[in-house]
């Protein structure tokens, strides 16, 4: 046992173990809910027990993303001082551990980030294949009757729909980087399966992201010489996507649920969001400087709408409104600062696969954050932190 620990403490071995555990985390994130937490726990265990977090502290302590991350974490914990709901506040504050993964991955700057990207694509492709087998009736569904592979529950399929779009963007970018005919065929096949998987699940956030970013996916596949043809092809693909019975059903519900909301019926997906967004704006107007504290949204909302308790209203299902209501102007500054530093880094390295992946995920996070608080969702929140900390300088062009 002692010899095993001593070997772990050897810097070269610990860095390799940290690298492989991070690859495992990237692989598992788009597959399931609990396994990524186990892999994440392994990452932090190796990072700490090997002493890497101290020996290589300059690798993460000198990052330009550290100030906005520290400020974000500080607000989450400081907000407990003025919240009305300590228990709920702790549930949100505890999720600041996501950012430990940014510190851990930044501790190995010489590792090529492209390996993490391939691990993510491998995991996503595995889950998509399983989801299609579920849809075909070959594999059983897990917990919920949705073709999302091993992922289950309401929130995961929202995040899953978003990472499907990220996978399409990454693969389309890789298409232009290879001359292999067979690899191009594989990429087109995977993108097609991703689109089909998206069309048979409930993730409307993913629908929106796909419709917005589909022209870019096609542009990556066809190149600059065919701009007009790319746009036409994108419109055709979006049109075919909208023919999906599931997509039509989910999009038609938006109009119906908006109408029900204005008739006084709030107990729908869209109705609850409109109710929360309206309340969030009022809360921010009345508490513009420091907000209502971490986790204070739900109790404060009841003051503006003293109806019977409604389900799932502990956050306004919008990352920007969450920060505004919880921490006022400081919260708005925090999240804008966080995204600005993130997007700047992604843009700088946009010509590499990992840099492009980071940039596209930032855009997807912003889109997804309009309808859900993605900064606290397990899949997207951890992936956001990992991308932020990932070194991109050694990535292949």
Give an overview of the whole structure.
The structure is a single chain. With 397 residues, the protein is mainly alpha-helical. The protein has one domain. The chain is 70% helix and 0% strand. It is built from 19 helices and no strands. Helix 18 runs antiparallel to helix 19. The radius of gyration is 22 Å and the shape is globular. About 2% of the residues have low confidence.
Largest sheet: none
Report mean pLDDT, rounded to a whole number.
90
Strand content: under 5%
The proportion of residues forming helix, as a percent range, comes to: over 70%
DSSP, total strands: 0
N-to-C SSE string, H for helix and E for strand: HHHHHHHHHHHHHHHHHHH
List the uncertain runs.
Answer: 4-9
Domain count: 1
Number of helices: 19
Structural class: mainly alpha
Large-scale geometry: globular
Radius of gyration (Å): 22 Å
What is the CA-CA span between the terminal residues?
43 Å
What characteristics describe this protein?
19 helices, mainly alpha, single chain
Briefly summarize what is shown.
The chain is mainly alpha-helical and 397 residues long. The chain has one domain. 70% of the residues lie in helices and 0% in strands.
Ordered list of secondary-structure elements with their pairings:
Layout: H1 2-9, H2 11-28, H3 34-49, H4 52-55, H5 57-61, H6 66-78, H7 86-93, H8 100-106, H9 114-135, H10 154-175, H11 181-199, H12 204-222, H13 227-242, H14 245-262, H15 269-286, H16 297-304, H17 319-348, H18 353-368, H19 378-389
């Amino acid at each position: 046992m002692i010899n095993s620990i001593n070997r772990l403490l050897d810097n070269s071995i610990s860095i390799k173990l940290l690298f492989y555990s991070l690859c495992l985390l990237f692989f598992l994130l788009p597959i399931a809910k609990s396994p990524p937490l186990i892999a994440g726990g392994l990452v932090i265990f190796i990072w700490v027990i090997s002493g890497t977090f101290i020996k290589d502290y300059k690798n993460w302590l000198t990052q330009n993303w550290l100030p906005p991350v520290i400020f974000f974490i500080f607000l989450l914990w400081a907000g407990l001082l003025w919240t009305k709901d300590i228990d709920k506040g702790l549930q949100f504050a505890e999720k600041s551990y996501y950012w430990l993964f940014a510190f851990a991955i930044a501790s190995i700057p010489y590792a090529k980030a492209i390996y993490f990207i391939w691990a993510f694509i491998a995991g996503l492709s595995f889950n998509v294949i399983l989801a299609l087998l579920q849809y075909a009736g070959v594999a059983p569904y897990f917990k919920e009757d949705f073709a999302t592979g091993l992922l289950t529950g309401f929130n995961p399929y929202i995040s899953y729909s978003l990472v499907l779009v990220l996978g399409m963007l990454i693969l389309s970018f890789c298409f232009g980087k290879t001359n292999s005919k067979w690899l191009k065929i594989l990429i087109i096949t995977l993108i097609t399966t991703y689109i089909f998987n998206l069309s048979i699940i409930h993730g409307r956030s993913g629908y929106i992201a796909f419709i917005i970013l589909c022209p870019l996916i096609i542009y990556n596949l066809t190149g600059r010489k065919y701009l007009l043809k790319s746009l036409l092809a994108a419109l055709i693909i979006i049109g075919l996507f909208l023919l999906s019975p599931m997509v039509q059903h989910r999009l038609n519900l938006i109009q119906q649920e908006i109408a029900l909301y204005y008739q006084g019926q709030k107990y729908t997906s869209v109705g609850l969001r409109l109710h929360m967004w309206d309340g969030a704006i009022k809360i921010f107007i009345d508490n513009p400087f420091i907000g209502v504290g971490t986790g204070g949204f739900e109790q404060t909302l009841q003051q503006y709408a003293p109806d019977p308790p409604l389900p799932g209203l502990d956050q306004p299902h919008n990352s920007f409104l969450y920060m505004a209501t919880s921490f006022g102007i400081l919260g708005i500054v925090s999240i804008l600062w966080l995204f600005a530093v993130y997007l700047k880094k992604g843009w700088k390295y946009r010509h590499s696969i990992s840099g492009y992946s980071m940039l596209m995920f930032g855009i997807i996070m912003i889109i997804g954050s309009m309808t859900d608080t993605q900064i606290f969702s397990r899949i997207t929140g951890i992936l956001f932190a990992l991308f932020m900390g990932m070194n991109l300088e050694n990535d292949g062009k």
